[in-house]
Amino acid sequence: MSHHKLEFKNVHFTYPDGNKAINDVSFCIRHGESVGIIGANGAGKSTLLMLMMGIVFACQGEILVGDIHVTKKTLPMIRQRLGMVFQNPDDQLFMTTVYDDVAFGPRNYKMDEEDVVKKVNYALEVVGISHLKDRAPFKLSGGEKRSVSIATVLSMQPDILIMDEPTSSLDPKSRRKVINLLKSFEHTKVITSHDLDMVYEVCNRVIVLKDGRIMSDGSAGEILTNGGLLEECGLEIPLSLKSCPRCGSTIGRVQE
Amino acid sequence: MPDLMNSLYNLRLLDGLARKETPVHRMHPLVKVLVTLIFLVFVISFDRYEVIRLMPFFLYPVIIFMLSDIPAIPFLKRIVIAMPFVIGIGILNPLFDKQTLVISGVAVSGGWVSFFSILIKSVLTIAAGILLIATTGMDKIAAALRMLKIPKIFVLQLLLTYRYISILIEEVARTVRAYSLRAPMQKGIQRSAWGSLVGQLLIRTYDRGQRVYQAMCLRGFTGEYNTGNYARLKTGDYVHLLCWTLFFVIAKIYNIPLLIESMLKGVIR
Question: Would you call B88 exposed, middle or buried from its count of C-beta atoms within 10 A (0-12, 13-18, 19+)?
Fold first, then answer.
């Protein structure tokens, strides 16, 4: 399944204003992996996602999706394989109905309208929002909007799901719904977030970024319990892995 | 501030209305666009003194309005909003046009007649435009324009402008809200802050627009706005197009109000 691979080889990226956002980053994400990319604000998480999606191009180094280099020429192919869910659903939803928004991607790939209907219905069903089909996106709640933006990406049947802060600004119940949804996907997932509890639940691998460099790359359990490393990178141990202030037990560990 | 949010809701109201299910809404968008275009051409084609002959054309917006189940007050409000501009254009006609016309034996000032002609033409054309948007929706209108082979760059411009207006209003509302919360004693926005506020707004809207555009590109957008396939025109669509065109032609050739008047006179005699 090499076509589901996502590889960065010594990637450097500097913004036009001279800000060096990504500095010699290398990693390889394989089929079926769920990878959390964490780091403080300005660590380079969003830039990394933009590089993956070909919104910006590396100044140096190579980015490969499967065996294909991310270049201007290969973008249409790459973007069909990678589905990105934006941090703010309002940026992603712009059509007048949920259905049209979910159909936007498949229609752009010139699929038959019959196929489009099938794909849209499938995506809406998977996310559990078939009942919102004819609603206007701007009238939905935050959680519903997030689900719709996930559906807009699923309708393109991508191999790899890329998500920027999927649980930000959601109420606890909506957050739980999104987490369960993410856990149910068998796609390769790349998730950036400050919600480390969610990362712990959804991801099996974590990459920690600091000032555009990879500080650590390993299993979620190992990294998210390493207080020193997280502290150094402007993060802290997720609440679910901290000791209970009353009884001293660790909820996360108890579950394990 | 509430005005800004209101205008956003108003804008979205049209989108909401376009999703209703009435015979007019179900009609093929191409037919609706064509009938509206033909209507506009015919209404504009009348001479500035032919006020009476314009009257039969009210039948079109009235019938479409009644069939499409559109609430009257928002509809009329939108027509009224444009009136100050129309009055601004025509108000000098009575001063400059001193010609006297005789209509049904009564002498009237040509200036006033042409002023009313501008007013009536505006009401008719604006009403037809609003009805088209409220019964079709911008996406379908764009699809119809593409079917008419209008270059995609123009259609896209129309669509994106329509979409970006709401983004702009949202940003303005947010900025003004933040400003007014920190300036509770002020009425409106101080002149000294205008420059930086507008600058901020431009940058923020630009950024937001950029993100929306990126989201579109990531889902395979290459400049063609695909809104799905539309069924072929049905018999009902052809009948709608034909009947209205026929009616407009008849109203253009014959002076229907005059015919009705003479008929009535004949009956009375």
Answer: exposed
